Every structure is written in structure tokens, then in C-alpha cells.
UniProtKB/TrEMBL annotation:
GO terms for molecular function: DNA binding. It comes from the Bacteria. Keywords: DNA-binding, Transcription, Transcription regulation. Residues 7-66 form the HTH tetR-type domain. This is TetR family transcriptional regulator. Residues 29-48 bind DNA. The keyword Kinase does not apply. It comes from Nonomuraea rhodomycinica. SUPFAM superfamilies: Homeodomain-like, Tetracyclin repressor-like, C-terminal domain.
Length: 193
């Protein structure tokens, strides 16, 4: 016989913070988090040291999941580096079309966390660096002449598609970004010199 245990206060706080910070931003109130998690204020401080610690932990969890999304999306696209990179933009289109899409959690957090020393910024920065490396590795496999620069361009297109998807619904930003990504993947034109 298997016994199922209900999530404890730590898990309930993480779940509530994950949902509410995405839907309402990291400025969501502590009282709303506690009410949604059905926990006492003491649990927040015992498990996370306060709201900032909870935000950082949510960012750590979601960045790990989203990095895995990039890996899985590219892996599912096969072995061709070009197809793997373009699959990212196809995946973004699906995410943007989801009814609960609210934009990029990390861009929103970075903009909302006014203190440049907030530990959440380190989490989002490290996440972007890891995604950049994933893209750069694929660009190297593709034989791109400037893989680091091209990875930066692709990340800019990703950020732009996610921001436009949240602020300008119905404009199909992922398809536009994919089209621009194709130009990045083609590299600088050698005959342009």
C-alpha cells in the first residue's frame, strides 16, 4: 500500500510563488503568497529567510526547467544544428500561443528587482549564460564563423519574441524572430565585402 503525503509548507510556498510571480510579477505581496500556499508567515522565514529567498529559489527552479526545455527542444529536432536552433523559435511560438502566457519570467524579474545587488539577478544572468552556451555550441557545430556573436543575436531574438508576445498579442513575434534567426544562421555574407 502506498501512502501519499501532502506537500509540506516549503513545497506549497514554492508552488504558490511560481504561479503568482509569473501571473503578477515578483512584486506580488507576501500576504497573497502565504494565503495561496495556506501557510503561516513563520514558514516563509524558516524555509527561505523571507520573500527574497523564496523568489531566488523559484528562479533557480524555473531556470533549470527552462534550460532543460531548450535542450529537449533541440534534441527532439534531430541532429542538424540549423534545425535544432530553429526549433527553439517554433517552441517559442507554441509557448506564446498558450492562454496563460505572460512573457519572460526572467526579463520581468530583472526589470522589477530594482536593487542591482538582489541575488535574483545572479540567477537570471547565469541562466542566460548557460542558454547562450547551448546556442553557441550548436552554432559551432553548424560551422558559423562567429558563434559567440550569433548566439548573442539569437538570444536577443528570443527575448524580443517573448516580450512582444506578452505586449503585442496576435503579432506572431516568434515567426518573425525565426525568420531573422535564419539570417543569423546563414552568417555574414562573404560576398558582401
Amino acid at each position: 500500500m502506498t501512502t501519499r503525503t501532502a506537500p509540506g509548507p516549503r513545497e506549497r510556498l514554492l508552488d504558490a510563488a511560481r504561479r503568482l510571480t509569473y501571473a503578477q510579477g515578483v512584486g506580488v505581496g507576501v500576504d497573497a503568497l502565504l494565503k495561496s500556499a495556506n501557510v503561516a508567515r513563520r514558514s516563509l522565514y524558516e524555509h527561505f529567510g523571507g520573500k527574497d529567498g523564496l523568489i531566488v529559489e523559484v528562479l533557480r527552479l524555473t531556470t533549470a526547467e527552462d534550460e532543460e526545455w531548450y535542450r529537449r527542444t533541440m534534441r527532439d529536432a534531430g541532429d542538424d544544428p540549423r534545425a535544432r536552433l530553429l526549433a527553439v523559435f517554433d517552441g517559442l511560438a507554441e509557448a506564446i500561443d498558450a492562454p496563460d502566457f505572460r512573457g519572460c519570467r526572467y526579463l520581468a524579474a530583472d526589470l522589477a528587482l530594482a536593487d542591482p545587488g538582489h541575488p535574483g539577478h545572479a540567477v537570471t544572468r547565469e541562466y542566460r549564460e548557460r542558454v547562450h552556451r547551448l546556442l553557441e555550441d550548436e552554432l559551432r557545430r553548424l560551422g558559423h564563423p562567429r558563434p559567440g556573436h550569433a548566439a548573442t543575436q539569437l538570444l536577443l531574438l528570443v527575448d524580443g519574441a517573448l516580450a512582444a508576445g506578452a505586449t503585442r498579442p496576435g503579432t506572431d513575434p516568434a515567426a518573425c524572430a525565426r525568420e531573422l534567426a535564419e539570417h543569423v544562421l546563414d552568417g555574414p555574407r562573404r560576398d558582401a565585402a
